Each structure stands twice: as C-alpha cells, then as structure tokens.
Task: structure prediction
Amino acid sequence: MAEVVVRAEALGKRYRLGERERYRHLGAALTRGVAARLRGKGYRDDASPERDDHLWALRDVSFEVREGETFGVIGSNGAGKSTLLKILSRITRPTTGVVRMTGQVASLLEVGTGFHPELTGRENVLLNGVILGMKRREVNRRFDAIVDFSGIAPFLDTPVKRYSSGMYLRLAFAVAAHLEPDILIVDEVLAVGDVEFQRKCLGKMDEVAREGRTVFFVSHNINAVQRLCTRSLALESGRVASIGETRDVVAWYLGETAAMTAADEWIEAAHLPRQRGGDDVRVIRFSYGTDGSLRGRLPHPEGPLEVKLLLEAQAARSLASVAITISDQFGATLVNADVVTLGETVQVKPGHTLVTFRIRALHLTPGTYVLGWWIGDAGDVVCDFVERAIQLDVVDTAAPGLGARSAGDGVVTCDFSVSIETQRGDDGAAPTHAATGLGTRQEPQSQV
Amino acid sequence: MIYAHKVSQPVEESLEIEQRSAPAARVLRADDRREILIAPRSGWAPLELREHWSYRDLLYFLIWRVLKLRYKQTVLGIAWAVIPAVATMVIFTVIFGRLVGVTSNGSPYALFSFAALVPWTYFANAVTQSTNSLVENERLVTKVYFPRLLLPLATTIAGLLDFLVGFVVLVVLMFSFGVVPTAAFLTLPAFAALMVAAAFGVGLCLSALNVYYRDVRYATAFLIQFWLFATPVAYATSIIPTAWRPLFAVNPMVGVVDGFRWAVLENAPAPRVDLLISVFSVVVTLCVGLFYFRRVEDSFADVV
Result:
C-alpha cells in the first residue's frame, strides 16, 4: 500500500456572514469597538464561536490520500469544495483541524495566475512559472518545452493583451502543465475553453497521475471525476457525505441530487438570458424529467426525456416553430426537436399554453449538455430564443464506471451489433462469437 | 500553530513508489520529503525568515514586474523618476527660498531642498504603492499561496531604481553648485538603508490595514501630505526649538533627511542624539509592521 501523502483531520472553516461581500469600514469597526467597550464586553465581537452570523463552510472533514492516487472531490455549489481547495492550497487557513502533506505541492485554481496583459508571452511564462512555485532555474530549463507545448512560439514577444483568448489559455496552460510537483491540486475551472483545450487539460492530468504523482481534483463535472479519479469524496453542506471508490460516491451523489430535485418541479425562465425574442410570446416556466424514472433529472443515454414549456402569450398567435434544443457545452446543437418537423403548428391564445415534448430515446453518450428552446411564428418572427436554459447531465448508472467515457468516445450512441470470426488459414472461417450492443458499450446488452 | 516547512528526517534510501499500472516509475528523492502542516493559528506568529528566503525567486520576479510595468507606454519613461522631485524643488526654491526666505544654513536652497526631496520622494512613493500592493494583486492573493509579505517588500525595493535616478541627479546638482563631497558622503548607504526600513515598516502596516479598511487608501494620500510638512524638507531642522527636537525626531524621516543633508551639503549640522531617536523609531515601526502583518495575513484571502 502506498504511503499517505495528504491527511486531513476534522477540518473546519468558519466565515462571518457578509465578510466576503464587502470590506469593512474603519468607522464601523471603531463604533463597534467603542460600543462593545461601553457595554463592558471585549472588543472582538467574534468572541462567541456559535453566533448565528457565522457560517461553517466546512465542518469535520477528514480524509486520506495515498501517493499516486487521483482523488476527486464532488458536491453541488456551496457544498464547500472551493473552501477545501483554498485550505489545501494554503490560501486560507482552517478554523479547526489539521492537514499534513508530504512532498512538493502545487495548486492550480485558475490558469494564468499573475499573467499581465502588458507583458509579452515570454515574460509571462517566466513570471507565471515562478508564481506557480517553480524556481527560476526550473522555468529556464523547461522554457523551450513550455513554448513547444503552447504552440504559440511566433508570438512569444508580443504582449499577451494582443493574444486571442485561445492563445492566452494555451500559453497559460502550457506553463501549468510543466509543473512537476508531488501533489497537484486542481480546480475544475481548468476545464474552460474549447474542446481541444479541455481534452489537453484532462489528458495532461491523466498523464500526471500515471507518472505516480498524487492529484487532488475538485469538480462538479461528474463525468470528469469518473474518468480520472480512483477514489472520491462528496461534500454536502460542508460535511463529508460520502467517501470511497469513485463509483460508489458518484452513485450516492446522483441519487441524492435526483432526490433533491423532483422531476415535476417548475423552473422559472424569466431571468434566463435570451438570445432573441419579443414580449408577445415567451416561456415563463419550464420543467424536464425522465418520464417517471428513478433518476429524476438525470436522463439515461438511451432513456426518455420529457420537457414541458409553459408559454405566456399577450395575443393570439400561430407558432410555426416551437422547438427544444440540446447542445454540447460549446454551443453546437445536437438535437433540435421542432413541431415543424411533425407538421404541427401551435396556436396560442392570450394566457398560458403548455407544450410537452417527449423524446423516446435520447441517444447521447454520458456527459454534460445544455437544454434550450426556440419559438418562432409563421412570419419568421423569433418570439423567444434561449440557447442555454439549463445544464443537462446524461448519466448511465448501470454501465461500468457509471458510463464514464473518454474524449474519443463520440457524442451519439447507436444501435449496433458485432460478430467476430477467427480466420484460421485454410480451415476457412468459423464464427465464434456474436453480440449486439449500443454505441459506447463493450459488453453485450439488451435493447432499451 | 504555524505553517511548517520542515525537512523531516532524511529518508535513507530512495523510495520506490507503487504505481497504478504505470510505465514510468517515479522515485521520490529524500529532499522532496518535506512535510507541510496546515493548521489554525491565532495571535502573534513568528516571522519564518527561512520560509520567506525560500521564495526569493518570486520576490525577484515581483520586483522585475513592477519595474517592467512602471513606465510602459510613457514617452518620457524613466525621466518620470525625477520630474516630480525636480519640479517640487523648483517650486520650493521660488516660494520658500526666494519669497519666504527660509534659512538653508548657508547652502544653496535648491541643493538644500533637493537633498531632502530625493529620500522623501522615495519614501512617499514606496509607502503609497505598498499600501495598495495587496489590494491591487487581489488575483494573486486569492489564487495562489506565497508569503504575502513579498508584495509590499517588492514594491519597496522596486522604488530604489527611481531613487537611484534621483540620486544621480542630486550628485550632478552637487557638482554644478561646486560642492565637493566630504567623508560624510560615505555614510549615505546607511541613511538610505534607514530610509528603506522606514518605508517598509510604514508600508507593511498600511498595506495590511488597507485589505480590511479601504479608507486607508484615501487616508494615506492625506497622511503623506501631512508627513511632508512634519519632515524638514522645505525647511531646516534648526528652526525647530531645541526643546521640541526629540519629539520632532520621532518622525523617522527626520533622521533620514538630516542624515542626507549632512552627507551631501558642506555646512549642514552633523546628526546628534536626534538620529538615535529616529533610528529607534524606525526599528519600532518595522517590528510593529512585520508582526502585525504576519498576524493578519492569513485572512487576507478571505477579506480582500
């Protein structure tokens, strides 16, 4: 068994509410101090630890990570992931508990920390490398490799403010990729940028892990955690909710999130950013679910998906095109289920109209997608166009590794079968095995 | 408790690490095996000079960044290091030297005031820029760990380049007034060191306070203005009643400015016991700054 290199014991972090939102005013502090004196109490108003204006962002978190392990941390927003990350990166100190780490630690909470727009690519590589914890000597030694990896050698002496955002990311990531710590702490924000870049990031992390380094990966992208991490930890309201094999932790997490969001719950649409649209007809609420299945809002790759749009109209209109769209994270539309392809039109009267779409089988590989809609009338007027209404996680809990897939696995699934024949020279062909399956599966499997 | 960067007992042999079906075997060397302890801390913390020393490469690059960026996209460039001081000297010479007739103890007033303006300008800029150093580098403070002390320290040191330019102009001015340097001239590095220490001490306190109270930023501008008049820049210390001199010298810049004048001018009075008061004052400021900064630096990322 490998040695334990990260050991956290009973970690806790308490924040005073409001502390993060605004900096304190000198005047307020003085009056508070004076008032406390007058009341005969101590100056420090946080003397009593259990006051209700305090919030425990993290409480009693303990875990161990062994050498060479890739350890995932998942949890919904506000579960304490970033706080844990900040403590492990030594950016902030815990209120209680202890962490012991053995070896050199590097943490990447964002790419390009310390990049300055006025400095050239070359200058930023040097600066960023040292900020991330390399010695000047090390940066110089790896400089050529970094530049090669980034692929922006011709622009090395151009200020980065003239770079495209893609070039900027590539250069910044190139520096980060050449860190050689024993323990690497990575935030999911690394997974920004285009597909190529994401692939590079995840690939690099895989490589780092295979070199025997320890990786601590914090994310709410379940698919990435499944792919990369052997063991994981799920946080909920600052506490450890589940810890162990990634498979079990993710299964727990999915069950939990499915239970938390009832499939028939309406989601307000008024605040969503609209690409286009007017005031006549718009979606005011929507809802989606997997048609009564256990997994609530996490559809199966081959499973059904039901989407309900509640339209509000100011006047009677004939809508020639009412569609729901499913796009990938980068905006490419993968599914466009439009009433027009069924030869239907939707007649709306002043008031509310409910339109329900039922997709019988999704045919999407496990991953994160984006749900949206498009509503247009017969005269080509766009009434309501929302490209990114909500994130849609497609998950296969039954598949090995919960449907974890590698980047090369494609996007859509298909019905397919395989037959394998062993060719034995002059004996002729003899069929030995036949199987049918769906898209990304290796093992034989029945139809949905 | 503290962040400890200890090299624990050296491991005798190299350790072969178990792999997850990995081809590239990785060997941890004994000197990699340092343990990092992250634990709560309250109250006063030790300075951890070794920890800071291990970040010297970062300090170098932070200084380098300040210098690289300072005069970018300016036409006059490094000339800006002396333009304000020279302009102030001209104004002081016209108003205080000619119109008011402030005594300069027999030295040419222009040289008399410029000898004080060079260290003063350094001090004023270093304090102002250190005060903002943590807030301006919020991204760094919230995204990566390093001893926060490096930010005000880098600003304080980077200011020395401007100081050197000003100093060269001062020497040129000396010769053009026909002033020949005496042996006292050799004491200048000591006074320059006192000047840096004073600026660093004040900058540390103000930069840490500025994280919590943004009032400090505005107050500093006013403080520096007030401080200029509490320092013998436009006038000579000799116009202060002798009884008040010890109190006057509590201002660390009194010792610095009087020291500079003595080292540069022919007939400036030599520093006396007042200098010791100023030195003591600098030491106190620096200690207070260092320990206060260390005490509060852990919560910077939560507050900034």
User: Anything to note?
Assistant: Chain B has twelve helices and four strands. Residues 109-136 of chain B form the longest helix (28 residues). The radius of gyration of chain B is 24 Å. The first strand of chain B starts at residue 4 and ends at 7.
